[in-house]
Amino acid sequence: MSGITDAERYLLEQIRRGDGPAWEKFVGQYRGRLLRFAHAKAGQRADAEDLVQETFIGFLTGLGDYRGDASPETYLFTILRRKIINSYRSAHSRNIGLIQDVYRGSEEPDSDAFAALPGREATASWYVRRDENKDRIRAALGAALTELVDGYKTNLNFRDLMIVELLFYCQLSNMDTSKIVGISERNIAVIKHRCLKQVKEAIAAAAVNFDDSAGFENLLTEVWESGRLSCPKRSTIGAMLLGTLESDWQGYVEFHLNRLGCHFCRANLEDLKQETADDPSKKIHARIMESTVGFLHKPR
Ligand SMILES: [Zn+2]
Question: 98 — phi, psi (to 5°)?
């Protein structure tokens, strides 16, 4: 799971103490991708910048409740998305055709619809303090899903990873998943069953008191999203942009961004594109770094 790193924890400690330069560094790090996200979700509206500004204010005022079980980036995206949803007055989507927008876009039109969807309210407030048992279920579920995703990546089994993303991250039906991936619905059902079994066994092994009868798949999606479990790192998205990934990875990252349409990763992609456009030398710099890193520590 993309929890908080030691460097981020240190930076946030400084911010908590009111360190101006630390905060400036933090804002500089995240403002670009947040702005991209706001533009993509709210259109080219003039208030995208206001929403991002409010997001940073929300982050500062909520810093006391932030426990660091998800990355600051995910926390910021969560705040921003709530602000966008609250500001929505007309339903529209510029990215219609991306799977996430088509299947999960129903959360956008107004805040009431958002609140009424099972599990969605929980997603919006996942960072608020909760009871201990729920936290343990989430932690066990997060660990089990991370193991699952890491296994796929290690074995370069991106086909199954795509299937599981469509089922659990986007909550698609077996039938829709089957159409997108191009394998039979029955095979999809087998893969889904296998995953759920593995995840439930891992939870049981963690000795967590758990009733999986209601809302299990919503919880699964919530944990997936808040942990950004299958999201490639920002550096990997950058490498995709440069075309320096191995072909298996390239195909997967392109799927995640351009077909599935992960909102978080698309915001990062747009931000990276802008960075490169701002300074053409960065593109060649990144390419040089990418191609030379393997030679750095070789013995003479
Ligand atoms: Zn993503």
Answer: -80, 140
Query: Does a structural domain hold residue 1?
Result: no
Query: Nearest-CA neighbor of 79 among 105, 60, 98?
Result: 60
Residue 88 lies inside a defined structural domain of this protein: yes
pTM flag (> 0.70): no
CA separation for the pair 219, 252 (Å, rounded): 25
**Rounded distance from Cα 262 to ligand 1 centre (Å):** 5
Which domain range does residue 191 map to?
132-227
Give residue 123's pLDDT.
Answer: 43
Q: What number of other Cβ atoms are within 10 A of residue 204's Cβ?
A: 13
5 Rama class: left (phi>0) / alpha (psi -120 to 50) / beta? beta
What is the Å distance from ligand 1's center to 148 Cα? 16
List the one residue out of 53, 203, 120, 271 whose CA is nearest residue 263.
271
Q: Is residue 152 part of a domain?
A: yes
CA–centroid distance, residue 266 to ligand 1 (Å): 7
Instruction: Read off the tokens for 261.
Output: 């349409």
- Rounded Cα gap, residues 114 and 98, in angstroms: 19
Angle formed at CA 44 by CA 40 and CA 49, multiple of 5 degrees: 85
CATH of the domain at 113: 1.10.1740.10
Whether the CB-CB separation of 173 and 163 falls below 8 Å is answered with no
Of the pLDDT bands very low, low, confident and very high (cuts 50, 70, 90), residue 131 is low
Helix (H) or strand (E) holding 118: none
First to last CA, the chain: 38
Residue 258: both structure tokens together: 């351009």
Q: DSSP class of residue 233?
A: P
Q: Which of 190, 210, 227 is the last residue of a domain?
A: 227
